[in-house]
Protein: Carbon monoxide dehydrogenase
Amino acid sequence: MGDLKLTTVEEMEAATARLLETGAKVGADAWQLRVKNQTPHCKFGEQGVCCRICAMGPCRITPKAPRGICGCDVHGIVGRNYLKFTAGGAATHSDHGREICHTLYEAKPDGAYKVKDPEKLIRIAKEWGVETEGKDIYDLAHEMAETALMEYGKPFGVQRWLKRAPEHTQKLWHDAEIEPRAIDREVATSLHMAHMGCSSLPEALVRQSLRAGLADGWGGSMCGTEFSDVLFGTPKPLDTEANLGVMNADNVNIVVHGHDPSLSEMVCEYADDPEMIAYAKSMGAKGITVSGVCCTSNEVAMRRGVPMAGNFLQQENVVLTGACEAIVVDVQCIFPALGPLSKCFHTKFITTSPIAQMPDSDYIRFDVGTAAEKAKQIVMTACENFKNRKPDLVYIPDMKQKATVGYSFEALVKTLDGVTNSQVDVTGTTKPLIECITSGVIRGAVAMVGCNNPKIRPDYAHIELMKKLIANDIVVVASGCSAQAAAKAGLMDKAAKDLCGAGLKRVCELADIPPVLHMGSCVDISRMMILVAELSKDSGLNISQLPVVGCAPEWMSEKAVSIGNYVVATGIDTFLGVDPYVAGSSEMGQWLTEGVRDWVEAAYTVETDIEKLVDKMIDRIEEKRTALGI
Ligand code: BF8
Ligand code: SF4
Structure:
């Protein structure tokens, strides 16, 4: 070992610059150019002080105009905007979860979608009190899918998944009146509260923001993760690669992008089909390479080892390689720019979901009933497009790293069994990890999540923070585009143990893991919630006492704010590198960074200076250790 050479952000930027030269040749637009046209951003929007929720406005708050026409003050306006932002994110994650439940409902032993993890299905059924004895697994799948779908609209009660949380956490939620009821209800109530003439009290708006967030993390997202595992298999550690160099100039390149694994799983299935590979060869290619962008990539990387071409702000780069025959998208985080950009190349931009329809795309509507035939059609379309490639435009940066991925909660527990010194049997629990933390071999853990955002040098914050954390013996669990940043840099290569402090390095060696563990897509942050819940139960400590924090240094989406709310509401201090449009209200700032601590024992820290951000996280972890006397 010791031969790991990380890929630097400078090298990635140089590769992007080279790709943008190709773009310039064909007159392509790019986010780097559009950012220039959009900056400086509108100050009112940036501070969250603009309101346009009724047609008397838009109203914007200034020292001279401290209230909107209806009399709403800046705190009400910023608070409503924040709640709406959260509701957008909670709706989006949860609707993804709902789609997965529908896919599960359609699963058949001889159909395109099967139950790949029956054991997990039975485990969840028992947890929910659903009779499993003597039941056909597909009958059970349909019953569970229907039960889960009811969680979205049930008239009474709270989310079933909340019972997974430690009792103390459940009590905090109950006492603060933030236990999420039906998922759709929390989204609708949020929009209702943020309507003209409803709530303008920051406390009420923040409380509902936490509740809507919890409806996501401990509701819709958990459905998404758990039933995706049932359908496609629970991830286990496996090796893959990351960065643009995973694309292969000799092959038909299909890039899957978006979030819902129902589409990408099928595309991968057909791309492996010998008939399709023969078809690609008949078109002059040597084979088919599927790679991914964004969370769909995380999903198929975790379960199939499909390589990750890049994260959010690299989505245009895959087309700029000139070697992308088709970029196939489902929902969320897809740049509408891909349509016009693809027209500058031979690339087919294939949209598939009624939820994400875009100009300049080929729309191949994908649904559960016709999944197999549509996936085949998509793969064939890509193969047929190989001959339209313009060889003089092809340039794939020779840049990739090895990554070991697939650390679902189940896989993590199994893996960590290898590091215990305990005399008693602790297998199948989080106790080995607790031992490492209490003994100080590992100082704590950070959940690194979220997007890229041009406001932060792309990937730089993710990578630099992770390097410093692991050097300080803090293990990192990562998801979403943060995980992909780590993988591209090389931090998910097991050899990255050499960048760790002595304690974490030893754990990495004993457990044979990289120091940054890929836990999946953003929806899979529910896996992290399960992990902290089990750490709390196994240690007897409250979640807020654990030396664990969350961090989204480059976030950009509404989903990220919804996530932030449920991570904080779960008792985990959360550090943001981008302000969530609340700078305009001192009261909202106070509620989010301090006030919520009285309800949920955790709060936000916003810090745009990356150096300070990492130091604050380390300090927070050490404070928690001191409080525990460890
Ligand atoms: O849900 S991290 S840019 S891809 S929003 Fe999007 Fe952000 Fe990436 Fe996945 Ni998550
Ligand atoms: Fe203006 Fe009030 Fe209407 Fe908002 S709700 S646009 S502050 S009048």
User: Anything to note?
Assistant: The first strand starts at residue 50 and ends at 51. The domain at 402-628 is CATH 3.40.50.2030 (Rossmann fold). Residues 51-54, 56-59, 68-70, 72, 77, 196 surround iron/sulfur cluster (ligand 2) (CB under 6 Å). The CA atoms of residues 243 and 309 lie 5 Å apart.
